Amino acid sequence: MYLLWLVTLIWAFSFSLIGEFLAATVDPYLAVSSRMLLALLLFSPFLFTYRTASTQALQLAGIGAVQLGLMYLLLYHSFLYLSVAEVLLFTILTPVYISVLDYYWRYKKLHWRWLGPALLAVAGALVMRYQQLSDDFWLGLLLIQGANLCFAFGQVAYRRLALGSVGTQKQQFGWFFVGATVVSLVATALFANWQRLPDTNLEYGILLWLGLVASGLGYWLWNAGARQVSANQLAVMNNVLIPAGLLVNFAFWQHAVNWWTLAAGSVLILLSLVWAMRQRD
Predict the structure, then answer these.
(1) Distance, CA of 224 to CA of 166 (rounded, Å)
(2) What is the mean pLDDT of each run of 10 residues along the chain (281 residues)?
(3) Closest by alpha carbon to 182, among 174, 170, 194, 171?
(4) Radius of gyration of the chain (CA)
(5) Are the CB atoms for 131 and 125 separated by under 8 Å?
(6) How far is 86 from 254, CA to CA, in rounded Å?
(7) 161 dihedral zone (left: phi>0; alpha: psi -120 to 50; beta)
């Protein structure tokens, strides 16, 4: 569980950096592809040093292509139809998809009681993130749910691979970013605005942090941590990022926070985490 908490802190800080310094100036597709390339560069020494079976390499590349490449493509397209608040609101359903996919993958059936912690985590995030919806949002809703499913599928699929310890996983994890990089480069070629390149040292520095730390180390440690907890614990941790991100935005950038909804939502997420930890996997 400590790996998931560590990555949550890294990602909460990273999302704040994106919102403050990159979102308005740097094209998102260029930002994502640069992050994937840097993450791939970080793990490339292991790709050349250690041999990975072709089947496992393809599995890892496929998971990376879906969990990151396709997820980011759907996510950024959803911004064409949704406000930022609506995107954040609709991402809270990821825990439900994780619980459903993991349980059905193992047992080929569903037990709705198994969804309890995930639904409680969604309720907690909804309390913190509910906003009035725009009139024309259905296509955006479908896109963001597709992104949620991609991210959930990647986590659940990675839990099913025979990869060994966290240290052993880093020897093969570069293949994950091979798949993610291929999809992100295709998306960049099709949709990027090349007039919005980074042009300051600060922007380049943030992209280095996002690529090497938030993406490279972050996704390796997150997926490794996902293998060490139950499916419901993993589901709940996907929504812990919401209160963490709000607190970082307040602490560093003094963004307004509704402390009543933050406290109420955080309590619900905490209760869902305790519930998940008490369930047998």
Answers:
(1) 6
(2) 92 82 89 95 93 92 96 84 68 85 80 75 78 71 88 95 87 96 95 94 96 96 94 88 78 73 84 77 51
(3) 174
(4) 18
(5) no
(6) 22
(7) beta
